[in-house]
Amino acid sequence: MSTSTGAAASATSYEARFRVWRGDADGGGLHDFRVEVNDGEVVLDIIHRIQATQAPDLAVRWNCKAGKCGSCSAEVNGRPRLMCMTRMTDFARDETLTVTPLRAFPVLRDLVTDVSFNYEKAREVPGFVPPPGVAAGEYRMDQVDVDRSQEFRKCIECYLCQNTCHVVRDHEENKTAFAGPRFLMRVAELDMHPLDAAAQAGLDRRRTAQEEHGLGYCNITKCCTDVCPEGIKITDNALIPLKERAADRKYDPLVWLGSKIRRRGAASGPGA
Ligand code: SF4
Ligand code: SF4
Ligand code: FES
Questions:
Q1: Which CATH superfamily is domain 116-268 in?
Q2: Gene Ontology cellular component (predicted)?
Q3: Please, which of 2, 103, 198, 210 could form a disulfide with 129 given CB 3.0 to 4.6 Å?
């Protein structure tokens, strides 16, 4: 079916073939559309045109159309992307574009998934612990430490990295034990923060990274880094340093001795 909108068409308009997944938690399938494409358009424009002209009840989540809200995440020809930042010129005109919802999260409807897994994982990471005796506004840190945090804080919470990571993408059963790259990056950011007083408060972020957030599941494939629309070097700058710091902790003789004593105390029982 041709869907040309006539007046809006420019000399370089063409008709593209789209296959869009439609359905809900009970199942669904790919639906074919032929739809007009104009100069400068992105995949989200085309999804909106399908919505406007052929499938008014097509569900799609978006907000800013500027790559900043992280809402329009989907998979285009199997690759996780922001639809609003994916130019139609990235594809050949005769190529059929297949748009499907994020695979790692449950479908609500059409291209909209339930990403609450990520909110749960966010809540499991204890926040910044303010340094005792330093008033807010008097915090001082080196520029190199500021820059490191700034990189991680560019995150727009699109969850493309979470969706891509093979640890959960094909293994639903790992979701309980694995926080995913975005939240391991948060742990790394806090562990490397020079003012974070977690250790003084009795919180060992390196231990929790291993034992509660599943750092050991990550085998540094860098797939998360490859899809990050903010270009954050998740693996090189967060996950690998966090692994090194967790390993340092494990092989630190004082930590080793402390854990031996704790284990012996626990084995002896309270009455020993
Ligand atoms: S580097 Fe680690 S967190 Fe990132 S995709 Fe690979 S296994 Fe997952
Ligand atoms: S780290 Fe990158 S890919 Fe992951 S949620 Fe943040 S912006 Fe998205
Ligand atoms: S609509 Fe906001 S990132 Fe795409």
A1: Alpha-helical ferredoxin (1.10.1060.10)
A2: plasma membrane
A3: 198
Q: What per-residue confidence (pLDDT) applies to 248?
A: 79
pLDDT at position 2, please?
38
Whole-number pLDDT of residue 262: 56
Q: If you average pLDDT over residues 7-28, what whole number do you get?
A: 86
Domain boundaries, the chain: 6-113, 116-268
pLDDT tier for residue 259 given thresholds of 50, 70 and 90: low
Which ligand places an atom closest to the C-alpha of 74? 3
Residue 106 CA to residue 175 CA, distance in Å, equals 12
CATH topology of domain 6-113: Ubiquitin-like (UB roll) (3.10.20)
Pocket test for ligand 3, best of 62, 76, 115, 155 (most atoms within 8 A of CB): 62
Asked if residue 221 has its Cβ within 6 Å of ligand 1, the reply is yes
